[in-house]
Amino acid sequence: MPSMFKKSSCLIFILLCLQTSSYASGTEKSEWISNQLCPKFSGVFFWNHSDAPQYVFYHLMHIIPDENSVVATGQGSYMSGGTLTFIKVRWRIDSDNFNITISESEPTEPDFVTDGTYEGTISWDLLKVRTKWETRSTGQTGVLELEADKSCQPLNVS
Fold first, then answer.
1. Better pLDDT: 9 or 102
2. Cα–Cα distance between 96 and 100 in angstroms, integer?
3. Strand (E) positions, 30-122?
């Protein structure tokens, strides 16, 4: 009987911790994300129906929490078919559900497509991003998968 009591007490404790954490304010969640988010991500992008990978690197330079989200801005690069393109990036992470929107602008190559956004999720540990791109003008889609740099330190918001 004491063993069952210990298991029940442990389960109740865990449930109370989970319930308490769900009441954290949006601002507290946003601050936690901004303090833990690695500023360096790399990965690969594929247009749907294409086998040609584009290697992607993002460096987030400013990570700012607000009431219900985190906005991060920085620079990125794409290597595709021997061409290196630099861009500006903007991330928005929803603090409640870890949905992420990524937009890009000001590419150094004139044919680089920025007429759209990435929509997807970032993992709860903030280490993996999986998104789908959709070009507004053509409807063309693709998939971007990123991982946080294993050696980086999160930027701390002051």
1. 102
2. 11
3. 40-47, 54-65, 69-80, 83-94, 99-105, 116-122
Contact between residue 27 and residue 70 where contact means Cβ atoms under 8 Å apart: no
Report the distance separating Cα 96 and Cα 58, nearest Å. Answer: 23
DSSP per-residue codes, 25-44:
-HHHHHHHHHHH--SEEEEE
Ranking 12-16, 70-74, 86-90 by mean pLDDT, the lowest is 12-16
- Around Cβ 95, how many Cβ atoms within 10 Å? 23
Token digits of residue 22: 């769900």
Residue 133 has pLDDT above 80, yes or no: yes
Q: What is the pLDDT of residues 12-52, one digit of tens each?
A: 444 444 444 444 666 799 999 999 999 999 999 999 989 89
| CA pair distance 153, 90, nearest whole angstrom | 20
| Beta carbons within 8 Å of 83's beta carbon, 6+ residues apart | 109
Place of tokens 């680089």: 112
Placement of tokens 């500023």 in the chain: 39
